[in-house]
Design brief:
By secondary structure, the protein is an alpha+beta fold. The chain has 7 helices and 8 strands, in the order ββαβαββαββαβααα.
Length: 211
Amino acid sequence: MSCHAHPDRDSHPVLRLASASPRRRELLASIGVAVEVAPADIDESPRKGESPEQFVSRLAREKAKAGHIGSALPTLGADTVVVCGDVVFGKPRDETHAREMLTALSGRAHRVLSAVAVIGAGGMRECLVATQVVMRRIEEAEMAAYWATKEPVDKAGGYAIQGRAAIFIERLEGSYSAVVGLPLNETASLLRAHGVALWDGALNDVASDAR
C-alpha cells in the first residue's frame, strides 16, 4: 500500500485518508483538515443478502481498517453509492453502461448513500447519510454529450453533482456534500470525537466554549 502526503497549505497531516478520491481530499481541506492519502485495496463486491445500507457501511469500515494499518493517525474510510429502487449503481464500465444508469435515473428520484468510518486510538466511529436526489428528464443527446466530457467515467451512478451534471438536478433533500462524496457535518463530528482539529482548531474551541 502506497502512501502519499497531500498537505493542506503545507500543514502537517492530522488524518489518514483511506481513499484516492480527490473530491474527498478537497472536502476535508475545506474544513481545515490536512491529510495523508493511503488508498485501501479491498474487495468491494456486495455480499449475498446485503442491503445497500449494509454494503456501503461495511466498505467504509473495511477501508478505514485497511488504511489504518501502520499509522498513528486516525484514519477515515468512506464510500458513496447511488441507489435506484434497491439496485446499487457503481461506476460505469463504459458509455453504454453510463447511459443505462442515467436513463434509469432520468425523471425520477434516487438515493445517494454515503458512509463514513473513522478509526483511531478510541476505536471506530461511523455514520451513514442518505440523500434523495431528483433528476429531470435527460435527453439522449445530452447523455452522449455528457459522456464525451469524460466527467462520469469514475463517478458512482455515472454523474457528478458538483460538475456538469448539476444541470440535470431538479432538487435535493439531504446533504449536498454527501452526494459529492463526504457528508461534512457528520464527518466533522466524527473527527472531533477523535481529537482531530478543524479550521486550525478554531471550530473545536467554539464547540468547547458552547459546552
